Every structure is written in C-alpha cells, then in structure tokens.
Sequence to fold (172 residues):
Amino acid sequence: MDKKLAEKLLREAEIELNTGDCFKALKLIEPLLAEGDPAALFLYSHFSLLSLESDEEFEKRSIEMLKTAAGVGYLPAIYSLAVCYELGDRIAMDKLHAADLYKKAYEAGYFKAKLDHGLNIYYGSYGTPKDTTRGLELIRQAALEGDDKASDVLKELVHATTPLKQVRKNVE
Fold:
C-alpha cells in the first residue's frame, strides 16, 4: 500500500477512536495490520474490542504488537515499550531494559524520551552512568521544547539543588 493511503487510513482510524468507534478504527487499519505496518500495529496495541478478546488476550496482543513495531525501529513503540517495562504494565518490570529503550528512542530523536533518558542520566539510574550536568541539560531541553512534565521536574530539581543561603538571599 502506498504511504499516502496508509497515512490517510491511520488518520481516519484515530478519528474513529476519538469518537469511540473501535470497530470502525480496526476495519480501517486491517489492511495495514496485514502488511505489518508499524504505525498500525502501534495504534492497535492501544485499544481492545472486548467482545472479541479478554483483558488477558488484549494485554498479550498489545505487548506483542509493541515489540514488533519497536523491533523495526518505530519510535513511538520503542518509547511506549520502555514505559511498559519501567512500570511493569502488561509485562514483567525491567527497569534496565526500560532505560536502554529510553536511550535508544532519545538517540533516534524521539522527543518524549528526552525527559526519561535525562532523568536516568541525572540520577545515574538503571545502569546509566551518572552525569548531573548532562542530565539536567536534557531535562531543560525537554522543558524548552514544551514537555510540561519536564518543566515541573526541572523546577523541583533546581529548587532541591539551590543552596539554602541562595534561597534566603533571593527571598530578602
């Protein structure tokens, strides 16, 4: 299928999902799923048709689709899979693997991964070498690029690292 038609089907499927019609969304992306399109796999990993599958079946299908899409380098899937591993959502918790996936998504230019990878660097979490300066810079970049959570984290980190003398001086 050509790229423009695939993108059109995905947009239409997202519209159907936003209006609550999962059956129409699935019908639209079925040809893409048959081709193994990573964006379609990613989209379908996020919704279930309860009349067709149990919660357990959905969770298994969802993770398998994320893994498949991530395996071909689809950045939103890599990031989502990292979140699943970090939280133990639908899959066994594995924070080391999550950190590797965040790093992979960040290095490939995925905006959402910048904060998570930056936090791992800042704290030296999950096998990531600690570098507070570099970590803080990535968090700051994410905040400047519009990540609201990064803005909140940045405020907390700056507040926590500001010496008490400086806080008193700023208050006076």
